[in-house]
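Thread: pyridoxal-5'-phosphate complex, take 2
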Amino acid sequence: MVVQALRRAARRLPAGGRLPSVRALMAQYRVGPGTVRQAMARLTDEGVLDARPGQGTFVTPPRTTPADEPADFSWQGLALGASRVPSDGLTALLAAPVSGAVNLAGGYPLPDLQAVSLVSRAMQRAARRPGVWGRMPLEGIDGLREWFAAQLGGPISAHEVIVTPGSQSAITTAFSALAAPGSAVLVESPSYVGALVAARLAGLRLVPVPTDRDGVRPEMLQQALATSGARLFYTQPTHSNPTGATLSAERRRQVLDVVAAAGAIVIEDDWCRDLSFERSPVRPLITADRHGHCVYLRSLTKSTAPGLRIGAIVARGAALARLAACRAAAEFFVSGPLQEAALEVVHSPGWAKHLRDLRAALVRRRDVLVGAVRQAFGDAAVPLVPTGGAHVWVRFDDRLDDGSLAADAAAAGVLVSAGRQWFPAEPTGAYLRLSFASAPETQLTKGVELLASAAAGTHPRRRSR
Ligand SMILES: Cc1ncc(COP(=O)(O)O)c(C=O)c1O
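Output below.
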């Protein structure tokens, strides 16, 4: 009460005006000296009053900068220097979709495809488990490490697994742990935009390696290793995002041989392991690697829910030790309740059914989207029908500017991802990445029709940015 009364009194006084003495205020408000002093102390903390010992208490003058004058942050440009990380690509993918628009740009399946009920039930139990809010082992809880290792089978053991908060964090960790700033890293062209951003953040020089419908071209990889001096190659050998390509069995052997011969490390991003539509999905590269040339990344976020940020890094030798040190430096450890919930979800009786339902829904959506794209733009627009994942890589006439087309499509009411963002250097053609997981099945055809109307109005050869 006295605080409010003093605040009002301060407002009535001019700036710099002096408040009555403590004694006068005691009499005015009929309270003791402690109450007056406490109220004054609080308003002094808030910056309303300025207590000057021996002189009295005064009303703080307003700040000299008028409130309507914009703050000047321009000096930060000098302090921070050039930016290593372009802010558009990744943030656009993660941005909340504009309401009313058909979202063919998202990276995660819609909530109705997520394991939300399994996750939330597991989370409620996990949150109550004794000790779960305490410090966790730096490399993750044993059960989860064992599960990730068992998923790979064969020679991988739990002590070679580090639990991470999703695989984006695993990529960032891998780049900073395994390459020195300024060195080169080989990446497929095109490749996952989040990996391109992470490599730039780590100060690495991106060297593109050409791909075709069977994945990276091993002879080009060999050449790139020789000419660039790179000792790191980031790849998605199975259902690549964005192209959907899967590295053929023969090329898998060749890639491992080429990498081993160069004394290099391949980072295998197996982001899509749970979203494969194949009856017997190809085995990861790491299962054929004996001498630590492969560092393997896995994620659960796509098949459970984006918020269950659990993934894993699998590695051996000095690489494992460096990755563990880097992980600990970045975040100490992954939150206990999240790890416990993830462990419960993957061991729950409903997990296998959830995966079956998710894959079946994705296959249906893929067929609808591919059908609509071929209808609108011809068969050649879909060079590869993906056998896993959540996206279709759509090719357009190279005279079309994909950046302008994506902007025009957004204006027409459909969100798509411009192909150029997925290339580590100049794009080799005009592409869009369309997601069949981030919009309801019933909206996929409408989304493609809106895209077709935008494409009809997009002027060829128009250049964006
Ligand atoms: C190829 C690839 N790797 C990694 C990630 C990161 O996913 P998360 O951090 O949710 O595991 C994504 C997400 O879109 C991806 O497409």
